[in-house]
Amino acid sequence: MMALYAALVKGFFAEEGLTVQGVPVDTRGAIEQGKTNWLTVKTDKGLTEADIGFLDIDQLHYMAAGKIGHYIVDGMNFGCMDVMVPVDSPLSSAADLKGKTVEMNPWWIAPFRGVNGLTFVNDELKNTGVDPKDVALQPMPWEALPRITDYVAEGFKSGKFAAVGVTEPQQFLLRERKVAKVLFSQTYQAPYNQEYCCLFGIKREIVDRQPDKAAAIVRAFRRAKQWVAENPTRAVVTMQAAGYYPAAVPVVPSANAVAAYGFDRKVDLAVLLEQSFRQRIEAGVIQTDKSPKELVRLHYRKFE
Amino acid sequence: MKRMVLATVVAALLAGVPAHAQDKYVMGYGAGT
């Protein structure tokens, strides 16, 4: 998310003559009301879709089904999630999770994130010889999130769960407090960090009817990505001071992760998206009669 | 004549000319954490 914060705080949108208001997504509301797009924000008219913001690779099943009102217009980061175990745990790989309970963020669930849940979790289990059905993947209570380090410490101690699935910046707090260590990582492990987990999207009607504005939005976003990539520590400190990134999160691990997210990685997004659609069609996550290339043509708009 | 003008206006609207150009945008951020 650091690039989104930077686009606001460093004034990259404003420099393009754009007026952009940042609003936190209402993930809980989106899930509880059965929404199909993570870019859901709360307004006085109820839950609506934001104009721009992040899209998630594990919502491609909804995109292929025509249920996402945004085009993908750029990539954002490669990885932001980890599965963690107690610091003194004997578990050493995903293979050791067979028969165990894993509590994960309440937005890691199906069908909000794929029909089987998160791709990198399912794939890592399968790659280590575990049928995902043999692991109890359960959502954490929403109420646990504001006190996640205490909640996870208590859960490990009581044996309620053997591992947790967490998202930036939760893992940095859990590591610093010596509550948990990483068992496997989307950010630091291939092939999971070869695919964008988070993408940048713009509402389709803006791209179609205001292509000049859409191009300006993409330019600002790319300048923000580049600034974050070149200034990871400064980005963390600046976004903490601005109130976008939690002040309690340790700076150095956050900056290391920001550097690893690949904000400045040069890739052909159309090629990556085609692979992502293909993998999900082959895994049965996306049911479609369209080819991966056709899905890219329908849902991705390239801005030079 | 009036009918022609009306048809032209309707055709322009159907062609995708926005009723008003959007100049403010809402950006959604954060994953739930």
Question: Brief description of this entry?
Answer:
By secondary structure, chain A is an alpha+beta fold. Chain A has helices at 2-9, 12-15, 27-32, 60-64, 119-127, 148-158, 170-176, 204-209, 211-230, 232-241, 251-260, 269-282, 292-299; strands spanning 19-24, 40-43, 46-49, 52-56, 70-77, 81-86, 101-104, 136-139, 163-167, 180-185, 198-203. Chain B has 33 residues and is of the alpha+beta class.
Largest interface: A-B, 41 and 15 residues
Strand element count of chain B = 1
Instruction: Describe the main β-sheet of chain B briefly.
Output: none
CATH architectural category of the largest domain in chain A: 3-Layer(aba) Sandwich
* Beta-strand percent range of chain B: 15-25%
Number of domains of chain A: 2
Question: Approximately how much helix is present in the residues of chain B?
Answer: 25-40%
Secondary-structure element string of chain B: HE
**What is the approximate shape of chain B?**
rod-shaped
Outline of chain A? globular
CATH superfamily of the largest domain in chain A: Periplasmic binding protein-like II
- The CATH class label of the largest domain in chain A is Alpha Beta
H-E order of chain A:
HHEHEEEHEEEHEHEHEEHHHHHH
Number of helices of chain B: 1
Structural class of chain A: alpha+beta
Number of strands of chain A: 11
Name the average pLDDT of chain A: 96
